[in-house]
Specification:
Distance between the termini: 5 Å
Keywords: DNA-binding, Transcription, Transcription regulation
Oligomer: single chain
Shape: globular
Strand order of the largest sheet: 1-8-3-6
CATH superfamily of the largest domain: Jelly Rolls
GO molecular function: DNA binding
InterPro entries: cNMP-bd_dom (IPR000595), cNMP-bd_dom_sf (IPR018490), HTH_CRP (IPR012318), RmlC-like_jellyroll (IPR014710), WH_DNA-bd_sf (IPR036390)
Mean pLDDT: 85
Strand content: 15-25%
Organism: Devosia riboflavina
Number of strands: 11
CATH class of the largest domain: Mainly Beta
Protein name: HTH crp-type domain-containing protein
CATH topology of the largest domain: Jelly Rolls
Length: 241
């Protein structure tokens, strides 16, 4: 396991290709434009995988969106283990489908015509996909800071702040802290988002809501992986402590 502080680079082009498993926190997938500007093209929260398997090298820079704990594996060794472990292979398949569904949700958010609609749609989706406890309490967790949140929504930090303040003044939401919000008027938030709640609910339901931790979260699995890797000499785990 390795710990990374918010903003640290976990992987970038030119480094040895890895597969990473986010144990806690969140990472962001970043691309850079020729003029030096950056785009956040994805957020992966724990539990979740990043990295390309059985394909070309990862073309994104992976940065810690918050303080994170990540298990990193050399890609060739992980691919060999994937072939030998049907449970892991199934989990990776489901993870890929989950990330594809999240990409569809982001497209829906970015299709909104105003920033306040994007913020509201994002919060409704996060609420519907949250734990039973969070849904009951109306709590929404935003796993990234305000600047990254604005970049994720393809707008400015000032526009996001104005939208959140407008929702607070309406009594629609309350700010718990910089990363957590409480939905006070769910129907109002959905109305502002201009989305169909049944459609959003079905979208979240189809991907099964919150992901299970999966086999890699198990210390026993990692120990077994290390032992089998050493026996077969298929590769090296970058970090497995």
């Amino acid at each position: 396991m390795r710990e990374f502080s918010q903003g640290e680079t976990i992987y970038e082009s030119g480094m040895k290709d890895i597969v990473g498993y986010v144990v806690s926190g969140a990472v962001k997938l970043v691309t850079f434009l020729p003029d030096g500007r950056s785009n956040i093209i994805g957020i992966i929260e724990a539990p979740g995988f990043f990295g390309r398997i059985f394909g070309v090298a990862t073309e994104f820079t992976i940065e810690a969106a918050s303080n994170v704990i990540v298990a990193c594996f050399e890609r060739s060794a992980f691919e060999a283990q994937l072939v030998a472990d049907p449970e892991l292979e199934h989990f990776i398949h489901m993870e890929n489908l989950h990330q594809l569904d999240e990409a569809h949700e982001r497209i829906l958010v970015l299709a909104c015509t105003s920033v306040i609609e994007r913020v509201s749609t994002f919060m409704v989706l996060k609420l519907l996909a949250g734990s039973d406890e969070d849904r009951k309490a109306g709590v929404v967790h935003v796993p990234i800071n305000r600047r990254d949140f604005a970049a994720y929504l393809a707008t400015t930090e000032e526009s996001v702040s104005r939208s959140i303040q407008a929702l607070v003044r309406r009594g629609t939401i309350a700010v718990i802290n910089s990363a957590n919000f409480r939905i006070l008027k769910r129907a109002d938030l959905i109305a502002i988002s201009r989305q169909d709640e049944d459609y959003l609910r079905e979208m979240v339901r189809s991907r099964g809501g919150k992901k299970p931790a999966g086999p890699v979260a198990s210390a026993a699995w990692r120990d077994s992986y290390g032992a089998r890797r050493a026996e077969s000499a298929t590769g090296t785990i970058v970090t497995a402590e």
